[in-house]
Design goal:
Length: about 140
């Protein structure tokens, strides 16, 4: 999975996705994905009010509001974009699920996958946890691998 797509797959759909991957993974195959470490609290840095930038359609005013995670680690992000020249407004709402390494480990194991390695960057620096390591790069294999 590229980017942080794992965070866009919520709740039961995440568990079903892992199960489907486990069933389709060839012997020796690896599932690799990036997700954000909830200990780093990235959502707190995403709130932004009144940013302006020039686009091909004119000046765009952008505002982003992100909620605290709910009990399942899901944040709601609302982005409001207003085009100064036309007054058009586009509001987008998205949801991202932050999962601890332990939750990820349990979800993978329930699907028949097991963590092989966890890195804190694509440079393969080791992940030890904590707020100073915002990313988790997870490599998982099936039981027969």
């Amino acid at each position: 999975m590229t980017g942080n797509v794992a965070m866009h797959i919520l709740g039961q759909a995440w568990k079903q996705t892992l199960s489907d991957i486990a069933q389709g993974l060839k012997p020796g195959g690896v599932l690799a994905f990036e997700t954000r470490n909830p200990d780093a609290r990235a959502w707190e840095k995403w709130n932004e009010t009144g940013r302006k930038r020039m686009t091909s359609a004119g000046v765009l005013h952008e505002t982003t509001t992100v909620s605290e995670p709910d009990s399942n680690g899901v944040v709601t992000m609302v982005e409001v974009n207003r085009c100064e020249d036309t007054g058009d407004v586009l509001e987008l709402e998205s949801h991202l699920q932050f999962r601890s390494l332990e939750v990820i480990r349990q979800d993978l194991e329930n699907a028949g996958l097991y963590i092989d390695k966890v890195y804190s960057s694509w440079s393969r620096d080791g992940f030890v946890g904590g707020a100073n390591q915002p990313l988790m790069i997870v490599l998982a294999r099936g039981a027969a691998s």
